[in-house]
Amino acid sequence: xxxxxxxxxxxxxxxxxxxxxxxxxxxxxxxxxxxxxxxxxxxxxxxxxxxxxxxxxxxxxxxxxxxxxxxxxxxxxxxxxxxxxxxxxxxxxxxxxxxxxxxxxxxxxxxxxxxxxxxxxxxxxxxxxxxxxxxxxxxxxxxxxxxxxxxxxxxxxxxxxxxxxxxxxxxxxxxxxxxxxxxxxxxxxxxxxxxxxxxxxxxxxxxxxxxxxxxxxxxxxxxxxxxxxxxxxxxxxxxxxxxxxxxxxxxxxxxxxxxxxxxxxxxxxxxxxxxxxxxxxxxxxxxxxxxxxxxxxxxxxxxxxxxxxxxxxxxxxxxxxxxxxxxxxxxxxxxxxxxxxxxxxxxxxxxxxxxxxxxxxxxxxxxxxxxxxxxxxxxxxxxxxxxxxxxxxxxxxxxxxxxxxxxxxxxxxxxxxxxxxxxxxxxxxxxxxxxxxxxxxxxxxxxxxxxxxxxxxxxxxxxxxxxxxxxxxxxxxxxxxxxxxxxxxxxxxxxxxxxxxxxxxxxxxxxxxxxxxxxxxxxxxxxxxxxxxxxxxxxxxxxxxxxxxxxxxxxxxxxxxxxxxxxxxxxxxxxxxxxxxxxxxxxxxxxxxxxxxxxxxxxxxxxxxxxxxxxxxxxxxxxxxxxxxxxxxxxxxxxxxxxxxxxxxxxxxxxxxxxxxxxxxxxxxxxxxxxxxxxxxxxxxxxxxxxxxxxxxxxxxxxxxxxxxxxxxxxxxxxxxxxxxxxxxxxxxxxxxxxxxxxxxxxxxxxxxxxxxxxxxxxxxxxxxxxxxxxxxxxxxxxxxxxxxxxxxxxxxx
Length: 798
Hints:
With 798 residues, this protein is α/β, with parallel strands linked by helices. Strands 3-2-1-4-5-6-7-8 form an eight-stranded mixed β-sheet, with helices on both faces. A seven-stranded mixed β-sheet has the order 15-16-17-18-19-21-23, sandwiched between helices. Strands 9-10-11 form a three-stranded antiparallel β-sheet.
């Protein structure tokens, strides 16, 4: 069965968010809700939802164009439209009676064989389907999305013994490939996996904070990055999801969990938190939460709650020796006795023990539990992986953790006993294996359509490598170029290996992919190297680095084989320029890319200006009526001098001078960072496989691009742009040094000292970029911006 159209019943925050993400996959979706009493518009709820979607921040839609896939209506006038839908998702109130009444309506109007699912996370599946009749139970399952649906990758899937196998596989495949979800199959138990563990962890941490009177900043400092948990930690996370949700979740859990469950033993209504909720301090969506910001003149000051007194205090930045140890073994971290570890140990201990005791009860395998926590709560390591992180040179993490439990007099869970001091995960050759609940090891199967580079690297050696990058053979004649530097920044070592990688690939391979497993592809050039060279007045060295970048990127562009960029997350500055020199880009849907060099007082120096203006000119030429008359193709040596080049120059100038960064791969396409040969992958784990497939397809009859000259307006365009720059400065829209940098951008993009009658070669554009870049880096204003960015991570407005 193929899913072509989906209905979402319920247009609240969650329902409309799910509908938006379905639209992101280019799938038609029908969004329905009730007709409120005395409503002026019968579709008022779905109309309002659609309006909110367009204003949502972070954006629910990857592009405003995706709105065309959403059709709205109501459950009275439009219920018959369910007959056109292949999958119907219920997202109404967490009330069994309301849900069952909705199912009866759905069942009366849906087509035979359509799939129905609920987004619930609190009501057991068997209760949901009771008494509906017909084939409903066979077609029904639970699909628990996490909020916001576009960004949270976990989808918990629950079926019953009566659910059709093909219905489960159809939904599972659609959510994986089209919606980009990590689908984890769960048992039909309260809270499923992620919320069952996550809620216990948060509750246990709050209790410990109150009991020990620990400052919440200390809690978040130790319970965040040192454990591979997002920096929001505990209280930052509760502020994000809403303090008022915690009592609701607890009430639901108390009603469905066994009375002797450890959660029921630890949950407490804290008076200070209840008072905060009553007064509107519900987190980021309210007046503040555990943290709040207050204006002090032009600045904002951060405050944090003292849970003992209920008063807000100026926020602090704790310095914990133990937190610095979190990058290694957790045994080493907890060997440091300070305020951080004294707080963190009992909370982590009890959370991991709670999870271990649930193994086999909430999911069949520990790998599914770990995956759910990594995808649903953005933990770097799942609970069982965290236990392995206690390993020392002499002992496995499981053994160390068990010994620490015994020291505290805590009962050791059965799965830890069954491990018999062996790790929960181990690597054997190219295989990664996990411990089953039966105490034996099972290999995690390799999926050629969904894999990470890490899986290829196991038991292998790179073709070539240095301190900043490596080149890997990923099979079928394709190489993969990987950054290995901090934050995947680009430096002379990276550029040197790019050149060598092209040569190595040319000898023995068909294609090359620029990719890495990191959440962020690249933050751009290592500006620390640049600042060091500038501080020693090593201008020739800086000129050499820019030339080295040009040579490396031009080598990619004109290589005798296809080069495919496969970025995800941040892809800024030099990383974006690399994508611009690839034959095509296979991007993850969450791609945030752009040329941001103006933020550090520079122009793009590795071909970014050149590629932006070339692509804008090409787009302009192809859209002109006379271009179409050339038989559907466009020759660059045609009457280019008749082309109005001002719009391409202004569009390029706007993108570069404002440091515009795409908010999705769809937007990167509209910015022309993705060309017409490029594609978008929804599931991060499928990105490398999709890029490889594209590379092999292009390799079949590959011909390198042909260079061509262009014509630019020079001073004519620059005069108009500089007038606008001066106007913006007078109204304080830009700073004094923004004027200098913007004028430099305009100089390059307009072609320097040229006019529309003169042709400019690609090499001349590159030289113009390099010369302008080196002149800017000599300015104090630029050096101040670079230094400020390195110190604070934020641009200086000088």
